[in-house]
UniProtKB/TrEMBL annotation:
Organism field: Dispira parvispora
Single annotated GO MF: diphthine methylesterase activity
Gene3D superfamilies given in the database record: YVTN repeat-like/Quinoprotein amine dehydrogenase
Name of this chain's protein: methylated diphthine methylhydrolase
Protein family (similarity comment): Belongs to the DPH7 family.
Keyword Transcription: no
Keywords for the protein's UniProt record, in alphabetical order: Hydrolase, Repeat, WD repeat
Reaction(s) catalysed by this chain's protein: diphthine methyl ester-[translation elongation factor 2] + H2O = diphthine-[translation elongation factor 2] + methanol + H(+)
Leading EC class: hydrolase
GO biological process, one term: protein histidyl modification to diphthamide
InterPro entries membership: Diphthine_MTase (IPR052415), WD40/YVTN_repeat-like_dom_sf (IPR015943), WD40_repeat_dom_sf (IPR036322), WD40_rpt (IPR001680)
Length: 375
């Protein structure tokens, strides 16, 4: 299979360094909307080089996609919000208070929640801050966030975050108290780059760290020891996502440039793996196609991976030893591609489900492009 090289419909300068992209997943009309988050380390005194005299700042930029396959697609800015430097953002996939909730992992030691209405009235900001949690430790900040309610609605949804001190922190979102920290534990020896839930069993979660270890945790058993430790990756593990389509399927990525697929019931060896030519900072399963996986691969750009020979993956046995091929690559980023996400599709146009937004860091660039057709 020949890899298609995608070209951008549009380029956008985010001003600050860009590291996160998340499409709105809930309302059909607003699935054309996405948020790009940025980070910038700036000195208070431009002559100073000490970290204590610098501030981590950032923005949330809300953008809407428009257009069609005939004339081409594009996007425009809707609103922009100043915040701390942002390391990760994730949408809850269940509607709360007639809208969605965006979680933000902040460089100032905060996890922050924003509410977004399920419609765009044009009056006032679309994103409104509703809760925030500040860590009590100095020089500790949050690196990733993930929601437990992707497949299972929860009255008080759980949220997990990973931290630069190797800890994980488990939260619950309540109507009465907002964002409540439930548990914090040492998970890794160095930075815990990523934490993610098993969407099919939200009592189970996974973490990856700069110690090269991939670990599993079960909230029913306490957090004194992991349920497994994998050392199959040879460098820091920085991306994990449970498949929302196939139970027990897990994808992981690492600085070692490998993407690995796993059966979470047998974590000794991966089902299959491939190299994408760059450190795998984020992985996103396609919203509708179980065999497609999007990788933001730092220095090598962003890539769409197709799994299996025939595009029909009925159960876990189909993934054992499956071929993983790169069907589409986007290489116009001039810096590290940290953020990427699929559009969920809008306005009854099926081709919009292959739209992808991706962003890169030092060139503060945001692009919109399209993958090859689904197998």
């Amino acid at each position: 299979m020949t890899t298609q090289i995608a070209h951008a419909f549009q380029h956008f300068d985010t001003e600050y360094t860009a590291d996160c992209v998340e499409f709105y997943p809930i309302s059909g009309d607003l699935r054309k909307r996405f948020v790009c988050a940025t980070y910038y380390l700036t000195p208070n005194d431009t002559t100073s080089e000490t970290l204590s005299e610098k501030r981590r700042i950032g923005q949330l930029i809300v953008l809407d996609v428009g257009g069609n396959s005939s004339d081409g697609f594009g996007f425009h800015e809707v609103e922009r919000r100043d915040t701390t430097g942002v390391f990760d953002i994730k949408w809850s996939h269940q509607a709360v208070r007639q809208g969605g909730i965006l979680a933000q992992a902040g460089a100032d030691g905060t996890v922050t929640l924003y509410h977004a209405q399920n419609e765009s009235t044009g009056e006032g900001p679309w994103l409104s801050q509703i809760a925030s949690h500040q860590t009590e430790e100095n020089d500790v900040f949050y690196l990733s966030v993930d929601w437990a309610d992707r497949l299972t609605p929860q009255a008080e949804p759980a949220l997990v975050s990973s931290r630069n001190d190797g800890h994980l922190e488990l939260f619950h979102v309540t109507n009465s108290e907002g964002l409540v920290s439930q548990n914090t534990w040492q998970a890794h020896d160095f930075e815990a780059w990523i934490a993610a839930f098993n969407y099919w069993n939200p009592t189970v979660l996974y973490s990856g760290g700069d110690d090269t270890k991939l670990k599993g945790w079960d909230t029913r058993q306490g957090m004194t020891r992991p349920t497994f430790i994998s050392k199959q990756h040879t460098m820091g593990v920085c991306s994990i996502q449970s498949s929302p389509h196939v139970e027990h399927l897990l994808a992981t990525g690492s600085y070692d440039e490998q993407v690995m697929l796993w059966d979470n019931r047998a974590m000794r060896t991966p089902l299959c793996e491939t190299s994408v030519g760059g450190g795998v900072w984020r992985l996103k399963w396609h919203p509708h196609s179980p065999q497609r996986l999007l990788a933001a691969a730092m220095h090598s750009g962003a890539h769409v991976l197709d799994i299996g020979n025939h595009g029909s993956l009925a159960d876990m046995t189909s993934f054992q030893g499956a071929d993983i091929v790169t069907s589409t690559s986007f290489t116009e980023h001039q810096s590290m591609a940290y953020g990427a996400d699929w559009c969920y599709g809008f306005n009854g146009q099926p081709e919009t489900q292959s739209l992808i937004a991706s962003c890169s860091f030092y060139d503060h660039a945001l692009y919109l492009w399209q993958s090859s057709p689904t197998l």
